[in-house]
Amino acid sequence: MTIEYATRHRHASGIPPEPGKPYFLEKGEGDRAHLFGDLFTIYAGGEQTENTFNFFTCEGPRGDIIPAHVHPDTYEVFYVTAGAVRLFVEDTEGDQQEKLLTPGDFGFVPKNCPHAYRMERHHSQVVGVAAGPAGTFERFFENLGAPTEQRGLPHDPVVPPAERLDEVGHRYDVRFLPDHRWDTR
């Protein structure tokens, strides 16, 4: 995985372009990208944490399930701060679970566990943290989606071509599972 210390989109984010500097961000600051119907905001990434963890939010409208995927070397947490998010996860033995998470609820996804989520209410928000031997994957969002300085949701969904899912995913420890099926209600 590549650590990216500065991006062409960083100038308005408030995140310093060089590692090892303390910083503070005010509401609305951070590196932002639109992907699908969601807004992802990165507050700290591999470049600030020596590639040990990241901290981001995902906010979006009620919508379709985000495609099933797995992180072979990265652990991921979901902490819901607004709305409701249904988390789907499968353990390494193939047992599937799903849980509706509402504000204050937490979900943990170990590495190598297929998972997906769906925003169940408009204006839902998840705080995410990812860490593991492979580092962090926060730059996946801006490389697959569309970097933006806009603070709201995209007017039109940003849906990348299927071949980009695999190409960008492999760079950032995200493997999509197009044939995966959830036993959903």
Automatic annotation (TrEMBL):
Disordered: region residues: 1-20
EC number(s) on file: 1.13.11.24
InterPro entries (alphabetical): Cupin_2 (IPR013096), QDO-like (IPR053146), RmlC-like_jellyroll (IPR014710), RmlC_Cupin_sf (IPR011051)
GO molecular function: quercetin 2,3-dioxygenase activity
Pfam families associated with the record: Cupin_2 (PF07883)
Cell membrane found in the keyword field: no
Domain of life: Bacteria
Keywords: Dioxygenase, Oxidoreductase
UniProt domain Cupin type-2: residue ranges: 62-119
Keyword set includes Zinc-finger: no
Protein name: Quercetin 2,3-dioxygenase
Species the sequence originates in: Actinopolyspora biskrensis
